[in-house]
Every structure is written in structure tokens, then in C-alpha cells.
Amino acid sequence: MIAILDFGSQYSELIARRIRETQVYSEVLSYRTTAEQLKQLNPKGIILSGGPNSVYADHAPVCDPKIWDLGLPVLGVCYGMQLMVQQLGGRVEPSKTAEYGKASLVIDDPTDLLTNVESGATMWMSHGDSVTQLPDDFVVLAHTTNTPCAAIANHQHRLYGVQFHPEVVHSEGGQALIRNFVYHSCECEPTWTTDAFVEEAIREVKARVGDKRVLLALSGGVDSSTLAFLLHKAIGDRLTCMFIDQGFMRKGEPERLVKLFQEQFHISVVHVQARERFLAQLDGVMDPEVKRKRIGHEFIQVFEEESRRLGPFDYLAQGTLYPDVIESADTNVDPATGERVAVKIKSHHNVGGLPKDLRFKLVEPLRKLFKDEVRKVGRSLGLPEEIVNRHPFPGPGLAIRIIGEVTAERLNILRDADWVVRQEINRSGYYHDFWQAFAVLLPIRSVGVMGDQRTYAHPVVLRFISSEDGMTADWSRAPYELLETISNRIVNEVKGVNRVVYDITSKPPGTIEWE
Ligand code: XMP
């Protein structure tokens, strides 16, 4: 295992993912983790992440100085390198020229950490401070025009620092550098594989659950589906999957999901029909947040009633993923007060969230995984691509894509328009070019003409976006022909819609959903 001490970098998770790509397990830990705690975790090496502070600022986050006595290889990245230098007796000062963006690396020592990294490689820089004096026994491995100490090492103690960010994709040879650290400096073995994870997770679930029963709320997304497969493999019919049909899913999806699980995967699913109940909750509701709250609340009601009816259960399975459990990077410091403030802003809008006082114990076998790793696990367990690579779909579903009041009639209109979108992006082969692609129904009406008739009906908005993680997004430059086909079909086939418009707003300032 490689331990990453997080000093508040936006890239700490990315470092963990890059290391895991080399088939070595890694975890992001708070920079406050002590040397003693690290010793218990028994890592093969440590990475000190970047961070938004200056090492010489008051209240700058520092690591336990005893980690230098652990005898472990350490790689400091950006702030992490500066901290290493400062703690070991070197000097860090504000740079004359701050360096942001790409820089060309000139390699002075092509061995050790920089084996297989080419001189002239482009590396991603983002720093206003620089190392101006190395600690004893350190040498320069590489420099750039503006940064004399771009990569440094104390070969004997396997301590390394890089001013650039090897973890970002723009850094050429960044992955080679990470591999060098992981395999040569830390002498790790490639043990973090999907098969090894699955085997271990099944063993752990069996040991933990024993002959008790587990309840799982299945949504049809990749996380809960993977969880269902994994648990079914571990405990068979002692797993009960409950699918609550709120009535806000896409056309045909509830039926398809239940059929797939029962008939193809032979995992039985309790299909709870609750459409009327949810719709009644939204009667007269216009405000998006009230919609979410009402749906979330109703979900819990139904879930509790059904679990009582089907139970008793000892365990509740949850698809918690690693980004949800990472010790948060609370390392930014308010210069006025010295108080630490969270730098990570992550809105969590899962309506499937269950209250803490439910009387179940939790089973969370995916809690060590990133999303891309869940996909790999799902695939290796036999989950079909249509689930593994499904676009994200919000918990409140179509209810937050109907602007204004949600009624049965409006749900039907949107479901039909959305169906056309889905059919056409599948048919055209563009499905995987989009992060999400969907329709939104507006409550206003506009004038149109069909045949010799004047129409006065609703517009549908097409929202096709590209994104890496849903936190930021750009509107997709979808082919005109595809848009044209979709527009024609919607206006002709979906009663109540006479106009189709395309949303060309990025996020920020827009959000992906309209509500
Ligand atoms: P926004 O609209 O915030 O969406 O840019 C970012 C991502 O989150 C999804 N989303 C939700 N998911 N419950 C969910 O489970 C919600 O209430 C919710 N609202 C937005 C959205 O589809 C996108 O992937």
C-alpha cells in the first residue's frame, strides 16, 4: 500500500488512482496522520500531495516530522516537495516567476525516479514558490527554464520531490515516474487487481454476514447493480434486492431492470410499485428542492415499510464508494483566523440516502473503490455493458427534468421525448460520446404550425453534455444530423410538444440538470 498524505490538493484522489492503475493499492489520508498511525498501516511508501498553501505561511499544514525516521521511501509533489525540503533543512521562497501550465523538463539524472522519462517531456506546473536551497545529501534530477529544482532526490534514503504534477494527464512520462517510485523505490508488487479484489470482498462479506440476511436498495445504476452481483455471489438468496419504482424513471426501464435481474442474472428483485404515492407527494410542488425533499422523504417511508414487511434483516448493503469516505482535505487555512476551512465542495444530492437511525448494520464492500474500479468489478462479475457504461441518472429522475409541477400527463410527455433521444443516440452510435444526454420539459408554451393548424404547445430542451466527473461540464457539439432527427421525431411523435431547443450552457455557470 502507498499512503498519500493530503495537504488539500485537488489532485490527491488522482494520485491515488494513478497508483492504483499500476496495480498497487493506495489510500488518501489526512496530512495529520501521525508516523505511529502510518506504521500501523504498514505502507511501502508515502506520497506528500500538493496543496494550496505556502510552506512558510503561518498555520501552513505540516506532516508529523517523525515520518522522516520511518525509513520509508517518500515522494513529495509540489507543496509536498517544498515541505520535505523545509523540514529537512533546505529553503523554499516565493519564485521570481510563478509557473502555471506546461513546462519542458530538462533531465540532469536519467536514472532512478526519472528512468524512462524523456528529456524535453512536458510536465504540468502550478506553483508560486520554489526550492532555493536543497537539504544535505539531496541532488537535482531535473530542471526547467524557471525552476532549477524541478525534481530532486536523496538516493540513499529514497526521498524524492517533484515540483510538477506527474499525476495529471498533460504530464508526459508522469505515469512512468509514478511506476518508478512504486516499483523501484517502494518495491511494491502488483497485487491490486480486479480479481484479487472480488475474491477478497466475497470472503469478507461471507465472514461478516454469516448466515444473516442482507437488504439492498437496487436502483439500476452501476454501483447498486455491482453490489447486488457481488453480494449474490457471496451469500446467494440471503440477499434481498428491493427496487422502489417511484415512477420517475425512463420509459420501460423499471420493467427492463427487473426482468434483467430475474431472468438473466437469476437474482430475485422485489419490485415495489409506488408511482401513485410519489406523484401525490409532488401535487402542486414547483420548487426543485422541495421536490427533492418530498421524493427523498417518501423513499425512506416506502423503504421502511417494505423492509418491515420483507424482514427482518440484519444488514443493509450500501454502495458507498471511496471518494465518499476519503478523509476530507480540510487543509485550507483562513489567513485571518488560522481556522482550517474545507476546500472540497461536493454537493451530495442522493435521494436514496437513508437515515442514520435505521436499525441495520451496514455492509459496504465497494468502499475502497473509485467509480472506474467499480465498473471493472461489475464487468468481471458479468454485469452487461448497458449497465456498466450507463449514463448517470439522478435519483429524483424525470421529476427534476419537468420544470414546474410534475403531473402524470407531463411525465408521459417527457418520457416519450426522452425515449426518442435515447433511441436516436443509441442508433447513431454516439451514446458514449456524451456524459449525459437527455430532454427537459418546459412549462411555457410557444406558437407553432403543423399542417395548416396553429399549435400552442410546450418546448423540449435537449441537454447533451461532456464531462469527466459531473462537477464541471461542457455542452456537447452533437452532430447537426442527430439533432435534426431527434427534433423532427419529437415534434412529430410526442403530443404536446411543438418545439425543440438545444442548451449551449457549460457548467459553471449552468448546472447539468435544469432543476
Ligand atoms: P448538476 O445538475 O448539479 O448535476 O450539475 C451534477 C450531476 O448530479 C446529478 N444530479 C443528481 N443526482 N440526485 C442524484 O442522485 C439529485 O438530486 C441530482 N441532481 C443532479 C446530475 O444528473 C449530474 O450527473
CATH domain class of the largest domain = Alpha Beta
Number of helices: 14
Say which CATH homologous superfamily of the largest domain is assigned: HUPs
Helix/sheet category: alpha/beta
Radius of gyration: 26 Å
Mean pLDDT: 92
CATH topology of the largest domain: Rossmann fold
Second rung of CATH, namely the architecture of the largest domain: 3-Layer(aba) Sandwich
List low-confidence stretches: 328-335, 337-352
Number of folding domains? Answer: 3
Count of beta strands: 22
Main sheet specs: 8 strands, mixed
Distance between the termini: 42 Å
Strand order of the largest sheet: 2-1-3-4-10-9-8-6
Q: Which hetero compounds are present in the coordinates?
A: xanthosine-5'-monophosphate
Q: What percent of the residues sit in helical stretches (DSSP H or I)?
A: 25-40%
Keywords:
alpha/beta, ligase, 515 residues, GMP Synthetase, Chain A, domain 3, binds xanthosine-5'-monophosphate, 3 domains, 23% strand, 5-stranded parallel beta sheet, ATP-binding, GMP synthase [glutamine-hydrolyzing], Rossmann fold, 8-stranded mixed beta sheet, 14 helices, single chain
Task: Describe the structure in your own words.
It is a single chain. The protein is α/β, with parallel strands linked by helices and 515 residues long. It has three domains: 2-185, Class I glutamine amidotransferase (GATase) domain (Rossmann fold); 194-388, HUPs (Rossmann fold, 3-Layer(aba) Sandwich); 401-502, GMP Synthetase, Chain A, domain 3 (2-Layer Sandwich). It is 32% helix and 23% strand. The chain contains 14 helices and 22 strands. It has helices at residues 12-21, 35-41, 79-87, 174-185, 194-209, 222-235, 253-264, 275-281, 288-310, 322-325, 371-380, 385-388, 408-428, 480-493; strands spanning 2-6, 26-30, 45-48, 74-77, 91-104, 106-107, 122-133, 139-143, 151-154, 159-162, 214-217, 239-245, 269-273, 315-317, 332-333, 340-341, 361-363, 436-441, 446-450, 453-467, 473-475, 497-502. It has an eight-stranded mixed β-sheet with strand order 2-1-3-4-10-9-8-6, with helices on both faces. α5 crosses α6 (222-235) and α6 packs across α11 (371-380). It starts with a strand and ends in a 13-residue tail after the last strand. It binds xanthosine-5'-monophosphate.
